[in-house]
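Hi R.,

Here's the chain you asked about this morning:
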Amino acid sequence: MKLGGLTNPEFETLWAIVSAEEWNPDSHALEEVTSDGGTWTFRFPRQYLEMLRTLDSSAISSAAGSWAETDELPCEPADVEPVIQQLVSLARSVDDPGLGLFLWTST
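And here is the predicted structure, written out as tokens:
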């Protein structure tokens, strides 16, 4: 599933938002799995997926409002709410401990 140009810092910021915490690189970093020249692959940590799984529509709307106000994503909440809905859906589909959710980015 393509989420349109979002990179690990944006998803890390969202993690802090859904955690109701200030962003901290030590506790909200996606795990870098590999990098090769201009490409990177990151894994969403299990605890992040567990949080995403619990979000209901009200929590998704609230997170979208906060995420849209960040420096990383100056946009309207309606622009990012579908992204959070997709992440929640993906997180709910990854319930096997042997599976994970990954982000691939490139320059």
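One quick note: The chain has one domain: 8-106.

Cheers,
M.
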